[in-house]
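Need a sequence for this fold. Nothing fancy.
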């Protein structure tokens, strides 16, 4: 299930580049937060659709072009979040990402999780919204509930993962 490769060592701490398909975010392409990224893709698709509709009202843009604009907005927002999340995970934002925030994130996501798994989930959420727009409201409700439980009730971001997959 895992792709194994040697650890890379140098003047900095040792970094392992092995990964698995499903597991903890620090070693896997997909984790429990993939569900949240999928739901976020649906929610962002709704917002991006509103933005692209407003833009296309001023310009003469086809429906297909509006979809492409919507997808680009979703991907841009997703990658912006992934960049910000990286800084939060490592505590590199002075004043905002103290020890408590770094602890809550429970490690830095594996590069494949951040760039492949999360992005794929966001795009699949966007695609589902294009097919079934009525899914947006239940997805947003579930997403907000998921975030509230993980941020305000659970002690850290990977707590549910540890409960389900000891």
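Here you go.
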């Amino acid at each position: 299930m895992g792709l194994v490769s040697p650890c890379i060592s140098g003047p900095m701490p040792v970094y392992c580049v092995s990964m698995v398909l499903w597991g903890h975010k620090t070693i896997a392409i997909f984790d429990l937060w993939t569900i949240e990224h999928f739901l976020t893709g649906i929610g962002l698709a709704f917002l991006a659709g509103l933005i692209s509709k407003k833009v296309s009202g001023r310009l003469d843009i086809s429906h297909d072009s509006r979809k492409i604009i919507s997808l680009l907005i979703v991907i841009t927002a997703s990658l912006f979040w992934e960049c910000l999340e990286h800084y939060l995970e490592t505590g590199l934002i002075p004043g905002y990402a103290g020890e408590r925030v770094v602890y809550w994130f429970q490690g830095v996501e594996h590069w494949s999780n951040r760039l492949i798994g999360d992005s794929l989930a966001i795009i699949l959420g966007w695609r589902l919204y294009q097919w079934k727009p009525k899914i947006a409201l239940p997805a947003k409700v579930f997403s907000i509930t998921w975030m509230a439980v993980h941020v305000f009730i659970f002690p850290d971001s990977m707590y549910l993962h540890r409960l389900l997959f000891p």
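For context: Helices lie at 33-58, 63-90, 99-105, 111-131, 136-153, 159-164.
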